[in-house]
Amino acid sequence: MALLKMSDFGKRFTIHYLGKTMPAVEDINFSLEAGEFIGIVGRSGSGKSTILKSIYRTYLPDTGSILYDSERFGLIDLAQAAEREVLYLRKYEIGYVSQFLNVMPRTTTRELVEKALLEMDEPHETACLKAEKALEHFELDPKLWDAYPNTFSGGEKLRLNIAMATVKKPRLLLLDEPTASLDQHSKEKVREVIQALKASGTTLVGIFHDIEFMEELCDSVFYMQTQELAKKAQAGVGYES
What we know:
This protein is α/β, with parallel strands linked by helices.
């Protein structure tokens, strides 16, 4: 059984001041097994982020199903799941990394990463140690650990965002341009974490514009332009930006 299967998925948005409803994506179909990594590629505005946000249920899908093989609930349709089920899955099973950091004010960098672990019932001492290890891995200056991240640079905020999501080692991890504002060295740190998560069984869905970065990690690629799924092992498969 696939860990995630999206069937005939579609999402529309209403532009109220124009009185129009516009399709964002239509007839999206793909699936992936536990431990696989699928990359979604396409032009800006093609609906890549809409797919990820619908899996995470930031958006409520309009058509189709998003079947997820949950550890807690068994096979569940994320398009129809109750809010309490979605909240549980976000807390314990599904992680999301966006390009933007949106956190509670007056919460330090260290506290944010610790909180991600405490939510999963980690003992406080263990959460502290794992948080420090994650911050060290992504080379956030220790001077920033007890500072508020609203003053951070874009790259620092993104590294913190990735640390908060990956430290929980989710069953399913959604990555929306996680390397967008990172230098090459920082990208390598992200690669190391993704490889470790994948090796431990985490399933991943990711959007990248850095094609070389994605090509070495993904097992398959979903092309928005043609809405086709291509396996990495197939001869002649190329990547499109």
